[in-house]
Write a structure and sequence with these properties.
The protein is of the alpha+beta class and 395 residues long. It is 52% helix and 10% strand.
Amino acid sequence: MFSLTALPDGFHADPYPTYAALREDTPVCWQSDGSVVLSRYDDLDLVYRDTERFISDKKAVFGPKYGIDSPLYEHHTTSLVFNDPPLHTRVRKVMVGAMNPRALAQMEPGLIHLVDGLLDEMQAKGSVELIEDFAGAIPIEIIGNLLGIPRSERAPLRDWSLAILGALEPQLTPEQEEWGNRSVSEFKDYLRHVIEDRRANPGDPATDVLTRLMQDDTDGGLTEVELYQNCIFILNAGHETTTNLIGNALELLERHRDKRAALLANPDLINTAVDEFLRLESPNQFGNRLTTEDVTFHGQTIPAGTDIHLCIGAANRDPRQFEQPDEVVLDRRPNKHHAFAGGPHTCVGLTLARMEGRVAVGRFLARFPTYRITDGAERGGRIRFRGFARLPAQV
């Protein structure tokens, strides 16, 4: 029986055989704490779309996990991803408005300049670490720009994000919990001077997400807690997932050199290829919902108040939805994967993430068509997020 707190050997290196068995043999997989793992594509699709019976509010789950007076509880119960309307609707509308097509088009030249600069630095070194030198550097700069955080002050952002998101793992050590709580507190302390400065000197609300959040007065606007925590959410939502997308894609193309050759021969494939990378190696492997009433899946009744773990990594390789589900199909169409979740909670930054993936992977391949992953690659070692902590390479 699959357990989120007792993973089989080799799971982090390759979870997909485990996911396949889970999906085929135990599509409703009960956990020792009374929660349930769902792993089939259609089941996740139903849950994402039904916001009456499956809610995102996690106060009942996070209270016992973190303690209701903790910084982690305040953050994860206030940020967009674990909230339902009306807060979710209000904050999402502001963020979508700031990521409109015009704003993204204005952002792309800066992204290309950033990526080319990182490629120049790697070319000069030869031996590189693809997460630190490339994949992890890109979203930090993009999100720093979105929030108007000075470049000289961005150094702590990645570690804060890793710690806060790491606290979402099913099982935490005391050290992980302490690091997560400390990171929320330090990030809030840092944001105070950023927000004070923005109040005195507002940015362009057409492109500055923080200014938009501060100026929005729908239903009285955001409270101070909501403002701070959703700034933290913007970093967390866009940082690790995009880092994982880029790192996973480059490692995947190294393992499948015929696909790398095909992409080099036809660079226009990058648009559909990015979605295939997202499907095969989903940066976010699990989501969660809470049932509001008794529901039935595959003949089993799941009671109201049950925490449901949505196994995105398994659903995105479900043969009922995808032909050749374990193969890299660069021009796969349609490709309705769940890497960006679904329904009203579909990732607000999906267009930005695709753009970052397209520019980063495409320009990396064009510059370094014969790159090699070298010894020392290390997975992040987490269940919820799939990516690399280290990915050494020779370019």
